[in-house]
Amino acid sequence: MQKQRPKHLDLATIRLPIPGIVSILHRVSGVALFFSLPLLIYLLHGSLSSAESFETYRAVVAHPLMKIILIGLLWAYMHHFCAGIRFLFLDIHKGLELQTARATAKTVVVVSLALTLILGVALW
Amino acid sequence: MVNRSVIGAHYGLRDWVMQRVTATIMVIYTVALALFLLTMPSSYAGWKDFFAQTWVQVLTQTTLLAVFLHVWVGIRDVWMDYVKPTGLRLALHAFTIVWLVSCFIYSVKVVWGL
Predict the structure, then answer these.
(1) Where are chain A's structural domains?
(2) What's the domain count of chain B?
(3) CB within 8 A of B59, min separation 6: which ones?
(4) Which of A78, A113, B36, B83 is the most exposed place for a label (fewest CB within 10 A)?
(5) ipTM
């Protein structure tokens, strides 16, 4: 059964709507956090280590490259967290209207970036 | 004879519910931890004492178990969506299980200070 439907796949003119962007970033951030799990547990490990190894840990975390990775992971956590809460509300049929869905999607992007910035500056 | 349906609706409902329940646990833990950290003096000693309490260790470990179950459902969905060759997908599923079980064991060591 082959249906003839009009197709519009001009990649130069179509773009993902904002709820779609939030959705794919939720997936990307989830995968990033999955691969970073050992690092995240190591960070907890280091923060709870004895006084002398704690100094080594501080040096590791203070490395500029490490700071950039941590900021990235902080954003991944914040985005996954905010978008996840939005999806939980969508699951119970709250905020399904197009305008509301677009507004909450924008809110997720802005709030997660703002939280990353605030916490990033505070921890840097 | 076991009556077991391998096709049809509701097949993934258990996993779907598990992902939502574990997500809710993580949200509660994150908010609670953030509130505790805000009221706590930010020092190495304060953080260590906080984490030395049994109830903190128990709730952290429970939440981490929720994390690993949540990640299993999510990552498995990613492999199912994008990886079409069955053999490769099976290998990635196996890798995910080994990765998550290893992380869980590591988290037990860290949380309980072993």
Answers:
(1) 18-33+63-123
(2) 1
(3) B29
(4) B36
(5) 0.89
State yes or no: pLDDT of B1 exceeds 90.
Answer: no
Q: How confident is the model over B40-78, as pLDDT tens digits?
A: 877 888 899 999 999 999 999 999 999 999 999 999 999
Domain assignment present for residue B29? The answer is: yes
pLDDT, residue B6, reads 63
Which residue bears the tokens 């391998």?
A: B6
Other residues' Cβ atoms within 10 Å of the Cβ of residue B50: 14
User: What does the angle CA A33 – CA A68 – CA B65 come to, to the nearest 5 degrees?
Assistant: 20
Note the residue count of chain A. Answer: 124
Q: What is the pTM of this model?
A: 0.89
Cβ-based neighbour number of residue B5 at 10 Å: 8
* Better-predicted residue by pLDDT, B50 or B8: B50
Q: Give the torsion through C-alpha atoms of B24, B49, A48, A36, to 10 deg.
A: 10
**In 3-state terms, what secondary structure has residue A65?**
helix
Compute the C-alpha angle B49/A33/A77, nearest 5°.
65
- Among B69, B83, B106, the residue to mutate for chain A (most A Cβ within 10 A): B106
Establish if A17 touches chain B: CB-CB under 8 angstroms: no
Q: How far apart are CA B21 and CA A34, in angstroms?
A: 18
The residue segments making up the domain with residue B101 are: 13-111
A83 secondary structure, DSSP code? H
| Residue contact A45–B110, C-beta within 8 A | yes
